[in-house]
Design goal:
Elements lengths: L1 H22 L8 E4 L4 E5 L9 E4 L9 E4 L1 H4 L12 E10 L5 E11 L7 E9 L5 E9 L6 E12 L2 E12 L22 E2 L2 E5 L6 H6 L6 E3 L3 E5 L4 E7 L10 E5 L2 E13 L5 E9 L1
Parallel strand pairs: 2-6
Antiparallel strand pairs: 1-3, 4-5, 5-6, 7-8, 7-18, 8-9, 9-10, 10-13, 11-12, 14-15, 15-17, 16-17, 17-18
Length: 291
């Protein structure tokens, strides 16, 4: 009996010693961070985007005891209405800190894109101008960084004056006969951040508002016209101004257009006039074929 009692006392003391030893160990293990959504996220310019956040686990502390910080609002640029303001690729860093001060970092990669990126790329161009027929060159189409549905033809209206090559950068808005505000209605107020992608039923936001990026890009073939508004460019070399205007048909629709076969873009044609100073307008047609 005495032997049994001594054994129990020994085991009890051993347990206390182990517990005491365990309590005295330093916590050197950082928390583990998990993403609540995909680590790589693509979202649309001029739409809302809330931080998807993360969740954490720790070897000792409860989830609620772990501090999590991120630079979400510092990295991304927002309009006053909390919509995304600028395209680009961003890295959002999350830092989790447990009660012992151990830290862990994780990065979410966010791409903010313009829906107009669906037509961005390199093209072979065949151009016909009133005074310079059949001119061939390569060019590119880029999506505007701040205006949804707006694109720029980075090298257009190529001609030569006194051995100087003149390139104009023509801007255009994606436009749809059925899904855009009527461009002939001069009283329509259009938010410049998304131009003519506003719909007649809801002119205060782009039609793709709160769509996921994949869905919105798949709907771009609905926008088969390019609205080229009047633009004035200064040619400082030849000290002259150029005024560009997109041409329209008898119904007011732009002659500039995009051709799709299925969902595949096969051709872009821009048609307009360029007026240099007080000279007569020069008509031009440029056909862009993806390279």
């Amino acid at each position: 009996m005495k032997l049994l009692r001594n054994l129990l006392i020994t085991l009890a003391l051993l347990g206390v010693a182990i517990a005491f030893s365990s309590c005295g160990e330093d916590d050197t293990t950082p928390p583990t961070i998990y993403f609540t959504q995909s680590q790589d996220t693509t979202v649309l310019l001029q739409t809302l985007f809330d931080d998807p956040g993360v969740y954490v686990e720790d070897n000792k502390d409860l989830n609620a005891e772990i501090e999590v910080e991120s630079d979400f609002t510092d990295e991304l640029s927002f309009n006053i209405d909390s919509t995304l303001r600028v395209t680009g690729d961003y890295e959002i860093t999350y830092t989790a800190t447990d009660l012992a001060g151990n830290e862990a970092d994780a990065i979410r990669y966010v791409s903010v894109i313009n829906v107009a990126s669906a037509i961005a790329g390199s093209y072979d161009v065949t151009a016909v101008y009133e005074d310079i027929p059949d001119k061939n060159f390569t060019s590119s189409v880029s999506a505007d960084a701040r205006h949804s549905g707006k694109v720029r033809f980075t090298k257009s209206y190529l001609h030569t004056i006194e051995e100087d090559n003149i390139y104009l950068k023509i801007e255009a808005w994606l436009y749809s006969e059925d899904h855009s505000i009527d461009i002939t209605n001069t009283s329509a107020e259009v938010n410049e951040s998304f131009g003519w992608m506003a719909t007649p039923d809801n002119p205060d936001e782009p039609f793709f508002f709160n769509m996921d990026a994949e869905t919105a890009l798949s709907l771009m073939p609905r926008y088969t016209y390019l609205h080229i508004h009047t633009q004035v460019f200064a040619d400082t070399v030849n000290e002259s101004d150029y005024t560009i205007r997109g041409r329209r048909d008898d119904n007011g629709l732009p002659l500039s257009h995009i051709t799709y076969v299925g969902d595949q873009l096969t051709e872009i044609v821009i048609i307009g006039t360029v007026t240099r100073g007080g000279a007569a307008p020069d008509s031009f047609t440029e056909t862009y074929v993806p390279r």
